[in-house]
Amino acid sequence: MIYEASEIKRICKNNAKFLVNDRVDIALAVDADGVHLGQNDMPIEIARKLMGDDKIIGLTVHNVDEAIEAENKGADYIGLGPIFDTSTKKDAGGEIGPNKIREIKNLIRIPVIAIGGINMENCESVIRNGADCLAAISAVVYSDDVKSETKKFIDTIRRIKILRDHSING
Predict the structure, then answer these.
(1) What is the pLDDT of residue 148?
(2) How far is 28 from 25, CA to CA, in rounded Å?
(3) Whole-structure pTM value
């Protein structure tokens, strides 16, 4: 796992942040940019002590209380979900819907990353409801052209954010 993480970090180098999912030890071993933790992983306070203040730590949350607690405990961002039903993570629970994004965005100051069941057909509703970003694992990994599918998501997110931000400020 360390070899693979080192290779991904090399690929990301100056183009993207590299966060390791669930594994603080692997993140530390390869000097990743940060780690993403689930509710049952290492407590965020311990992860922060081990990783330091300059590393990114995200936490998966499912509701308002967990989101507020994550911010209070020092998370740099939250992964909110599952927004839609997902087959990627069987223990993710039931979908909470894109409207939950707006509710939580109004209560916390850190970025909200939408996760769970997101694809090209529903990603616009996620961004329109205030998500700062999104994770779309199956939609990208199982596509015939990962690079092209990723570009479509990036272009869609940028377009919707411009429209969303213009309607908020205009």
Answers:
(1) 93
(2) 5
(3) 0.89
